[in-house]
Model the fold of this input.
Amino acid sequence: DRPMVEGHKGSLICHACLGLAHRELVVMSSDWRPADDASCTMCLMTKPIPHFASPLNEALICHECVVRAATTLRKDPETSWAAPGG
Done:
Protein backbone atom coordinates (compact mmCIF):
# COMPACT_ATOMS: atom_id res chain seq x y z
CA ASP A 1 0.00 0.00 0.00
CA ARG A 2 1.94 3.03 -1.31
CA PRO A 3 0.93 6.69 -1.28
CA MET A 4 0.10 7.79 -4.83
CA VAL A 5 -1.23 10.78 -6.72
CA GLU A 6 -3.71 10.26 -9.56
CA GLY A 7 -3.61 12.10 -12.85
CA HIS A 8 -5.87 11.99 -15.89
CA LYS A 9 -7.31 8.72 -17.21
CA GLY A 10 -6.25 6.83 -14.09
CA SER A 11 -2.54 7.58 -14.38
CA LEU A 12 -0.68 7.28 -11.07
CA ILE A 13 2.65 8.30 -9.64
CA CYS A 14 3.83 6.65 -6.43
CA HIS A 15 5.73 8.43 -3.69
CA ALA A 16 9.04 6.82 -4.67
CA CYS A 17 8.82 7.83 -8.35
CA LEU A 18 7.61 11.28 -7.37
CA GLY A 19 10.68 11.61 -5.15
CA LEU A 20 12.96 10.70 -8.08
CA ALA A 21 11.17 13.09 -10.43
CA HIS A 22 11.18 15.92 -7.87
CA ARG A 23 14.89 15.45 -7.15
CA GLU A 24 15.76 15.52 -10.85
CA LEU A 25 13.48 18.37 -11.98
CA VAL A 26 13.25 20.64 -8.93
CA VAL A 27 16.38 20.02 -6.86
CA MET A 28 18.84 19.31 -9.71
CA SER A 29 17.06 21.60 -12.24
CA SER A 30 17.21 19.08 -15.07
CA ASP A 31 16.24 20.57 -18.42
CA TRP A 32 15.57 17.28 -20.25
CA ARG A 33 12.69 17.52 -22.69
CA PRO A 34 11.03 14.68 -24.61
CA ALA A 35 10.34 14.55 -28.33
CA ASP A 36 7.96 17.24 -29.58
CA ASP A 37 5.00 14.87 -29.82
CA ALA A 38 5.40 13.30 -26.36
CA SER A 39 2.85 14.16 -23.70
CA CYS A 40 2.85 14.07 -19.91
CA THR A 41 1.29 10.88 -18.58
CA MET A 42 -0.38 12.77 -15.73
CA CYS A 43 -1.95 15.79 -17.48
CA LEU A 44 -1.90 14.44 -21.07
CA MET A 45 -0.57 17.76 -22.38
CA THR A 46 2.37 18.33 -24.70
CA LYS A 47 4.43 21.14 -23.20
CA PRO A 48 7.86 22.56 -24.10
CA ILE A 49 9.04 22.32 -20.47
CA PRO A 50 11.36 19.91 -18.61
CA HIS A 51 10.05 16.39 -18.00
CA PHE A 52 11.11 13.32 -16.05
CA ALA A 53 11.11 9.94 -17.80
CA SER A 54 10.38 6.94 -15.59
CA PRO A 55 13.22 4.40 -15.63
CA LEU A 56 10.66 1.58 -15.36
CA ASN A 57 8.48 2.25 -18.39
CA GLU A 58 7.72 4.89 -21.00
CA ALA A 59 5.85 7.22 -18.64
CA LEU A 60 6.69 10.94 -18.64
CA ILE A 61 5.75 13.59 -16.11
CA CYS A 62 6.15 17.32 -16.71
CA HIS A 63 7.68 19.76 -14.23
CA GLU A 64 4.29 21.33 -13.49
CA CYS A 65 2.73 17.97 -12.60
CA VAL A 66 5.70 17.05 -10.39
CA VAL A 67 5.26 20.26 -8.40
CA ARG A 68 1.47 19.80 -8.21
CA ALA A 69 1.75 16.13 -7.15
CA ALA A 70 4.42 16.96 -4.56
CA THR A 71 2.17 19.61 -3.03
CA THR A 72 -0.76 17.18 -2.97
CA LEU A 73 1.22 14.37 -1.34
CA ARG A 74 2.91 16.69 1.16
CA LYS A 75 -0.53 17.93 2.33
CA ASP A 76 -1.95 14.41 2.74
CA PRO A 77 -2.30 13.79 6.49
CA GLU A 78 -2.07 10.02 5.95
CA THR A 79 1.49 10.18 4.61
CA SER A 80 4.75 11.49 5.93
CA TRP A 81 6.09 12.20 2.45
CA ALA A 82 8.53 15.07 2.15
CA ALA A 83 10.03 16.39 -1.05
CA PRO A 84 13.72 15.57 -1.49
CA GLY A 85 15.89 18.57 -0.77
CA GLY A 86 13.16 20.41 1.11
